[in-house]
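So, does this match?
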Amino acid sequence: MNQPIDSNALLAMLQWQVEGGVCDAIGDSPVNRYELEAKAPKPKAAAAPPPLALAVEADPIADAEQMAGACDSLAALADAMQAYPHCDLQKGARNFVFSDGMAGAPVMIIGEAPGRDEDMDGRPFVGRAGQLLDRMLAAIDLSRQAHDAESAVYITNVLPWRPPGNRTPEAREIAMMLPFVQRHIALAAPKYVVLMGNTPCQALLGRAGITRIRGQWTEAVGLPTLPMFHPAYLLRQPAAKREAWADLLELRARLNA
């Protein structure tokens, strides 16, 4: 007959099990701990963060086309050009140089970019080259100060800000400002366009070489266009004034036709 185990013996056995690392009470059937670990659910992987949105790089030309196309007046165009964020020239320029003369005049003259005097004054062609231009126009009865449309001219540049050191405008600067120039012509609505120098010819005709193409009527933005020497070139090369005079007479003949 089995003898009952006294409480001291039971306590001693329990203490032995605890010291041996037992943490669960003994059940009626054995438990395979390795099998339990194999069946244990694996922790869920942390959800991957959503992909970062890629920054869309601005397109200066597309932005210029959109901004220029939205302008329905010359005042709106001037505001849009000053708000255009992609041309760094404006950071170093003293003034924004938009135009001079009478909008709606039959002749629109487009030069390259403001120089030192233009940057200080805020108007195109006001330095020595501008003074020569005024004399050239007066010789064929045109003037930027004229109050009647038939004798008036309208003057602007491809770039409205002075390049540092009066350097030649870069191709990317010309390209980003071209939509504004095209819209400027459309809003000013001249009969004839005069391109003075290589930069406006490059911008609107896609070719330079002013000594070869000057004096030859062509077409830009759907209008009769005459390439001519820039007055600054004539100051450096006085002998070229003969060709410039011939070009002025050609322009006067068109106006008289």
